[in-house]
Every structure is written in C-alpha cells, then in structure tokens.
Amino acid sequence: MNLTIIGTGYVGLVSGTCFAEMGNNVTCIDIDSKKIEGLKNGIIPIYEPGLESIVKQNIKNKTLHFSTDLKDSLKKCDIAFIAVGTPMGQDGSADLKYVLQVAKEIGEYMTSSLIVVDKSTVPVGTADKVKATIQKELDNRNIDLSFDVVSNPEFLKEGDAISDFMKPDRVVIGSNSEEATKIMRQLYKPFFRVTTDRVIAMDVRSAEMTKYVANAMLATKISFMNEIANICEIIGADVNKVRIGIGSDSRIGYSFIYPGSGYGGSCFPKDVKALQRTAQEHGYSPKLIEAVEEVNDKQKLVIANKIIEKYGTDLKGKTFAIWGLSFKPGTDDMREAPAIYIIKKLTEMGAKIHAYDPKAMDEAKHFYLKDVKNIEYFSSKYETLKNSDAMILLTEWKEFRSPDFEELKLQLKEPIIFDGRNQYNDELMKGRGFEYYQIGKKTI
Ligand code: UDX
C-alpha cells in the first residue's frame, strides 16, 4: 500500500519505518526541512535501539522516503497517518492545533478517496473534528471525495518501540466504516501469524478512549505502588517483599508495580492529565485519576526529601553524584524525568551535582537542565564519584545494576547511596559497609 505518515517524531518515524519494513511504500512528511534532509541521509533525530539500521535499509530498498511535500505525497496515497505532536495545553488538555492543521492540509490537497488515521494520542471526539475539518476544505474546493477517519492509537514503549510495533500485543482500530476497517486489517496482517491475529476493531470513540485508559491504568498501578511504598516505610514493612507477595497473584501480576521516583516520559503525565480534563469538561470529577497525578508529583521528590532529612536544608558544600538522567533506561528522553526535579531542588539548596547518563547528557545540557549552574557532566559513572558526598541513582540503566562497589567506596567521601529505583539489596549493601537509602523500606 502507499502510505503517507505526517510528522516524523517518535511515533511517526517508528510507524513509517516499520510499515516500510513490511513492504509498503511509505513517505514520511515533516515541515522541518533540516530534519527531513538528515533523515534522507539516515541521520536519526532520536535515540531508539534498532531504528537507524532499519531506516537505512528501507531507504536503500526504496520503500521509505522522506519529504516536506505533503501535496505531492497525497497524489498517490491509500492511507494518510496523522502522527504530529499533541502537546499539553496550559489547562492540561491536549492541544490539537497541529493535528487540525494537518487535517486542513489533507482536505486542501487530497485528490482521490483516502483513509485518514489518527495515530497521535488525541482526546475522544478528535476524529469527528478531523473529519469536519477535511470536509470543510473539500466543500471549499467544491469537490466530492470520499474519506474515512480512523483512530489507530500507538502503544509503543520508548526503548522497545521497534519490537512493540513489529510484534504488537494488540492493534486497536477504531472506525465507523466497515470498508476502512477491512483495509486497516490488511495493513496490519503481516505483523501477525495467521493464528494470532490481534487486531481489535471497535468504534472510533472507544478506540480513542482505549489509549488514554491503558496509560492511565498503568500510571495508576505505579502511583498505587508508590503510595504503598511510602506506607511500608513508615510502618516498618519492606515494599520489595510486598511487591513480590502481591505480584504472584495472577490477577495482579508483576508488571508496573515497581516503586520508584515516579513515572515520567512523554505519555503518562500528559495522558493522565488529558483524561482528567476530558472528564471535567463533561462535568465529571475523576477523583482517582487526579490522585494518580498528585501522588506522582510528590513521589518525584521522595529521594530529595531523604537527602534533606539527612543533611538539612542547607546543602552548600555538598556534592552529589547522580547516576541516570533519562526518565527510564534505553532512551535519551528526559521529558518529565524525576532527575530534573531532584537536581533542581538540590542545587537550589546549594548542592553541587556530578552527573552521568549513558544517553541523555546532551538533552540535559542543552535543554532540560541548561539553566542549572552547579552541575558538571562526566563521561563515566565512576568519574562522578570523586569528591562526592553520596551517589544518587535515578534511572535503572543496566550498567548501574551491579557496579564495582569497592570503587564506589574508594571514590565517594562517605559510602552513602540514595537509590530512587531500588536496584540493590539492602542487607548486602549493609554488609558491604554502605549507608543505603531506598524507596519503601527504612534504612537498616
Ligand atoms: C508508555 C506506555 O507503556 C506505552 O504503551 C505508551 O504508548 C506510551 O507511554 P513509555 O513512556 O515509553 O511508554 O514508558 P514506560 O516503559 O511505560 O514507563 C513509564 C514510566 O513509568 C517510566 O518513568 C518508568 O520508570 C515508570 N515505571 C514503570 C515505574 O515507576 N514503575 C514500574 O513498575 C513501571
């Protein structure tokens, strides 16, 4: 099939590349001509494992093209995917200006019947707005072309996006047209074995809602567990044991119940807020979802509060070695990362930061922490330790899982670790001579 993917951000680029890998003829469109020029030469603007090689391979195979010319691409197009950003507006709702601008252009340029797919995460009711916007342009042109608007939300995890796309748990297709559903099923067929077709077809609004509910449910699990961790700590229980105790119940399961410094990233914070706004706009006050966000905001600072409890509020003369800046391992993404909040709080109190992250240091330097003065970046985790009073672990990168603890003891001024991701066993740490602080269990 001939596909146009509009928006070469994270979702658009991964989706376009994976569709090309399945033999479709894909053109990825973006208004950023510099980005498009780079992509034509295989320069990938984001870090995502495995993406670069498939992009290059498909450029070579002539299945993947990059362009700024939407009009030209729509001349030969069966399905157009809208994959532009939906940033959070000031009131917490998703801002649809880019999505609707693209819809307008589709209406201006389309020359034959078309399926238009909302791939961006958009509030319930957006497909109707996209439809109305396209129809208005067609009316202005005085032309009668048939089109359907389909909701096909993405469920990609950063760091695993390629495998999530190539081997999906499910593909949700929301459409009020049988014909469009049939074509979308065909498009996704190669991603499944005959016996395991995991396409779930439903109406448009339910599909739009499914995306928000999946993310809000996962965020709820995390905030629930973080709240339990805080209670465990006060009453003298160990959340790590409680986690295993409850996870063994197959109805609960082990995933997404790891306590930590709170969830971050581009999806959970934005989607939880947007779902709240949607409910409120319809006169419903979603208590639980509001609490999920409130608990998470507080959780981001639990580790900073432990530090304050130990050293007091004046941190002048103290230096902390931070291991991990990205919101989770496997990505350079720092959007809503706990590290931003913790580092800002500690430096405001006078502390100096030595930071290391395997991938996110450029993001930190040039964007998320560019205003922070008292921070120095190092090219290895051990280099951060010299002259530091304690190590603070904020992202569970694999290379932090079993470090050389003797080296830590040798380099740190005192053997103290604040662990925002519960990576080590506290009894072992005590045996090794560390003062070890974690989430959800009192220091022994
Ligand atoms: C998420 C969804 O998983 C994905 O389906 C959706 O399309 C986009 O949002 P992503 O943002 O890449 O993907 O991150 P994910 O791996 O889901 O983790 C989100 C956050 O939750 C991270 O900050 C992570 O550290 C945190 N988390 C996760 C926990 O604190 N505890 C857990 O048990 C699991």
TrEMBL record:
Transmembrane spans: none
Reaction(s) catalysed by this chain's protein: UDP-alpha-D-glucose + 2 NAD(+) + H2O = UDP-alpha-D-glucuronate + 2 NADH + 3 H(+)
SUPFAM superfamilies registered for this protein in UniProt: 6-phosphogluconate dehydrogenase C-terminal domain-like (SSF48179), NAD(P)-binding Rossmann-fold domains (SSF51735), UDP-glucose/GDP-mannose dehydrogenase C-terminal domain (SSF52413)
GO biological process: polysaccharide biosynthetic process; UDP-glucuronate biosynthetic process
Taxonomic superkingdom: Bacteria
SMART domains attached to this UniProt entry: UDPG_MGDP_dh_C
Classification via InterPro entries: 6-PGluconate_DH-like_C_sf, NAD(P)-bd_dom_sf, UDP-Glc/GDP-Man, UDP-Glc/GDP-Man_DH_C, UDP-Glc/GDP-Man_DH_C_sf, UDP-Glc/GDP-Man_DH_dimer, UDP-Glc/GDP-Man_DH_N, UDPglc_DH_bac
Active site positions, chain numbering: 267 (nucleophile)
Domain UDP-glucose/GDP-mannose dehydrogenase C-terminal: residue ranges: 321-426
Alphabetically ordered keywords of this record: NAD, Oxidoreductase
Enzyme Commission number(s) of this protein: 1.1.1.22
Positions that bind substrate: 155-158, 211, 256-260, 264, 328
Gene Ontology MF term list: NAD binding; UDP-glucose 6-dehydrogenase activity
Residues that bind NAD(+): 30, 35, 86, 121, 158, 270, 335
Involved pathway(s): Nucleotide-sugar biosynthesis; UDP-alpha-D-glucuronate biosynthesis; UDP-alpha-D-glucuronate from UDP-alpha-D-glucose: step 1/1
Family, as annotated: Belongs to the UDP-glucose/GDP-mannose dehydrogenase family.
Function: Catalyzes the conversion of UDP-glucose into UDP-glucuronate, one of the precursors of teichuronic acid.
NCBIfam families for the chain: NDP-sugDHase (TIGR03026)
The name this protein goes by in its record: UDP-glucose 6-dehydrogenase
